Amino acid sequence: MDGTLAGTLQRTRADGRLPLPTRRDHAACVTSPNQFVVVGGFDGTAELMDINAITVRAAEDSVGWGASVRTVAPRNRTPPGRSHHTVTCHASGRSLYVFGGYASSRGTLGELWAFHLDHHEWWQPNTTGDQPPPRRNHIAALVGGRLYVHGGFNGTECLGDTWILDPQAWHWELLRTTGPAPSPRRGHACEVVSDRYLVVHGGYDGAAHLVNGAVLDTATGAWRDLAAEGGPEDMPTARAHHTLTLAGHVMVALGGSGPMGPLLDMHLLESPPLVAGLAQQYKLMTMAAKLSAVQAGMADVEAALAVTRHRADTAEQQLQLLRERASDLVSLHNAALADIDRLKSRVAAEAVRVVAAEAATADAQLALATAERRLRRTREGGREVAEAARDMHDIVCDLREEVARLRGQLLTATQHQGREAAQLAALATEKQLLQQQLASSQAEAALLRGMLATAEAEFRLALDRQRNAAETEIAAAVEQAKQMAIAAARAAGGTGINGDMDLVLLQQLATATARAETAEIRLHQMERENGVLQADLANQKRHLEQQRQAREAAEDRAAAAVQHMHASELKYQSEIEDLQRQLLEAQRERWRHDLGLQPSRKRAASEPAEQPPPVERRTQGTDTADLDEFGAREQAEQLLWNARPPPEAELEAPNRPQQMAARVSAVLDPTDPRAHFTVQHIESLVVEDPALEVLPEVARLLQLQRRLAGQG
Asked: Where is this region: Disordered (predicted)?
């Protein structure tokens, strides 16, 4: 049990007291054969709830006893302190059960707490069933795995009931007993015998100390009186708060308090049936130990027998393997003897072959000497041939290097020609696009010229109509003003017209004058708009002229690019032809050298150069080198043929200019009854059709012309 070491009781201490804090009314129980715990109590100031474990051991010199005290520190919250309670150890559950007690702040308690001896944790179980009333100075014992609680004091009177707690289900139950139950009491002592009988002795009933006892059979629930015999000096006196402990077959009653005060005596209670039962139990235990020993011996014998059988099986298997290996060895021995015989015959044959080989070696040595003499003569007479062969080899190496160089130049020229061909194709595509754009621009220009001419004619007609209308209106206004002036003069001359008539005439004269001024203002405004339109028309013409000049410059650039492309093509074609001629010359030189028509390099340096004969095509009977050269020539010609530029494709007429021309002819054709020569139709054609792509200034001009036409 872990915790804090509080102290050790030594055998040599005179007072024999444990190093524990002073306390009273605590509870204690045994947890192991040499250990017990002390829980709670009252220290004179407040109630405690600490746990102290006392371990008892024999002294080092085997005289007396020693004890060590260890304070157990719980890992969680400690329950409130208490006194006059009970603590019971559940050995199989490794737990301590604390029930009831008294606290100064809360009075008599009836709660149950449990402490785990391994985990060092307190917890309060949730119990079911009828709960026992609070009590203190009661007894509690664990019998048959269940906790029995009897008697006690509830703060008012003593109790005599018996309660049972099942730790498996945490269920409380009031025990219904039979027989003469002990009277209500508190401070009594109890002990368990044979894990069945609960012995109760002594106590205090509130008026006097008690000396009688009773025994509860937990199997039947029956009480019976404890009948003890002995002399007057051997019988224990009435007492309470003492202990009752079973040691072997003797029950020991120790200490307590009586009517005259504390008691320090000790009494022993022996029961003949109990002694006989214990003796019989000891015999049974001895026989069980012997039986266990015999069973263990039988198990060892069976294990040894199994091991022996296994070893016998293993030995049998090994013997079988040895037999098989012996037969294999016999067959191998016979095969080895046969091999020895064959080797002997082969050795004899080899001896014959060795003799024949020695004779052949002698003949070979003679032939070798003859060959060496011939070789020396050949070496002496073939130096000129070797020199000529070296010269021929040098010439062949030079020709091969020249052919490799020409092939590299041919490959470079082919690649360059390919790039030029790609550029030529790109220029051709650009030229075609420029031609298409030129055609589209020409068609658009023609359409714009026609629309501008139509718009200008209609604008002039509208302007003339408005001008004539304004002049007519001005003349009418002048004439009306004249008539009004004459009428006014007549009125001033005294023709007899009344004042109302004069007022009307003056109003008409003012109206005519205002109309004349308005007409003159409109005429000036139309003249200004005509000037603006003329300026816009001049800007459009200038813009069209700039576009025409840009197209002509683009055509000139395209023509120059095409001319440069054709010049480059002719240049690279001539370079390729020169490379082909050089390659043919190199091939002719090599073929001539292979045929032996060319002298060696030494003679060629002294003799003048001759023109090479014409090259003839080889037949099927040429050697491998000629075939390789002919294949290389065909490959070069195929590369030159593939490197030729592709023929220039003809430009196709685009569909867009044809459609535009058709639409323009449909508008401008006077014989077509579907044609409309109105400003509105031309504006819808020019502005609403995105394919024509007209300038915003032309559209604005046409809208202004339509507005003027609508006002006229």
From this structure: 541-566, 595-622
pTM: 0.42
CA 705 to each of CA 184, 448, 539: distance values in angstroms, whole numbers, following the listed order: 132, 16, 17
Same domain, residue pair 595 and 504: yes
The DSSP bridge pattern shows strands 128-129 and 171-174 to be: parallel
Q: 658-667 pLDDT, tens per residue?
A: 555 555 454 4
In this structure, what is the dihedral angle of CA atoms 319, 321, 327, 331, given to the nearest 10 degrees? -150
Tell me if 444 is assigned to some domain: yes
Q: Are strands 95-99 and 107-108 parallel, antiparallel or unpaired?
A: unpaired
Same domain for 528 and 476?
Answer: yes
Strand partners, 268: 252
- CB neighbours of residue 16 within 10 Å: 11
User: If you count DSSP H runs as helices and E runs as strands, how many of each does the chain have, helices first?
Assistant: 8, 25
Q: What are phi and psi of 324, to 5 degrees?
A: -65, -40
d(CA 16, CA 64): 11
> What are the tens digits of pLDDT across the range 287-321?
888 888 888 888 888 888 888 888 888 888 888 88
Residues with Cβ within 8 Å of residue 599, at least 6 apart in sequence:
607
The answer to whether residue 642 is domain-embedded is: yes
The domain of 506 spans 387-650
Report how far residue 497's alpha carbon sits from residue 487's, in angstroms, rounded to the nearest whole number. 10
**Closest by Cα among 25, 38, 29, 164 to 104:** 25
251 sits in which H/E element: strand 250-254
